[in-house]
Specification:
Rossmann fold; alpha/beta; 7 strands
Length: 229
Amino acid sequence: MALNAVRTIDDRVRVKTALVSVWDKTGLDLLANGLLAAIPGIRILSTGGTYSALEKVLGPAAHGSLQQVSTYTGQPEMQGGLVKTLDFKVYLGLLSETYNIAHQADLERVGATPIDLVVVNLYPFSSVVSHPDVTPEAARANIDIGGPCMLRAAAKNFHRVASVSDPADYQGILSELAGSGGWLSLATRWRLAQRTFALTAAYDSAICAYLSQLEFPRVRGAYDVRAGS
C-alpha cells in the first residue's frame, strides 16, 4: 500500500476539539480556563485523573465542554489505566487529513471527530529510575505507552494537529489562540512537532539505557516466577 503524500494543507487551523491527558498537572488550571476563554464551545476529551482534575478546575463549565474519552469511544478504561486512548476513533481523529475524502468518510462512518490539539505529558520514567532502590517492576510500570503514541500521531499530522508536550508551552499557545479567535498557525504546529519528537526520542532512549544495564537475574528476582502452562 502506498503511503499518503499530502499536498494541500491549511496555514491556520481552528481548534474545536482538544484531547488532554497529563501526568504532570502543572498549569492545568491555566490551560483549561484559557482554552474555554479563547474558544467558547470547545470540546475537551480527557482521561482518568486528568479528567477529575479538569472537573475541579472548570467547575460548572465542565458540563458543557468536558467529556471522558471512554464515553467518546464507548470503551471503558482497562483496569489500572493501561488502555485509555488506544482506540480507532481517537487515532482517526488524530491522523485524518483535512482534504482527504476517504478520511472524512471514515470519520463520518464511525462518528469520530477531528482532534485539533493534543496536550500530553508522560509518566516520569527517568525520575523513577533515578532512585537507587528502584525495582525493575517499578521501572516497567512507569513506561508510558498511550502518551507517546498520541504525541507521535499528533506531531506526524502537524498539517492539522498541534501537539503540546510541555506545560511551559501552555501560555504561548493560549496567547496565540486568544489573539486569533481560536486558530493555530502552521509555524506553531511545526515547532510543537519538533519539540514532541525530541521528547519522545529522549524518552525512548532513557528506557533503552535503563533496560540495557539490567542483568537478567535481577529482573527474574523481582517476580514470583511460575512454570507456566
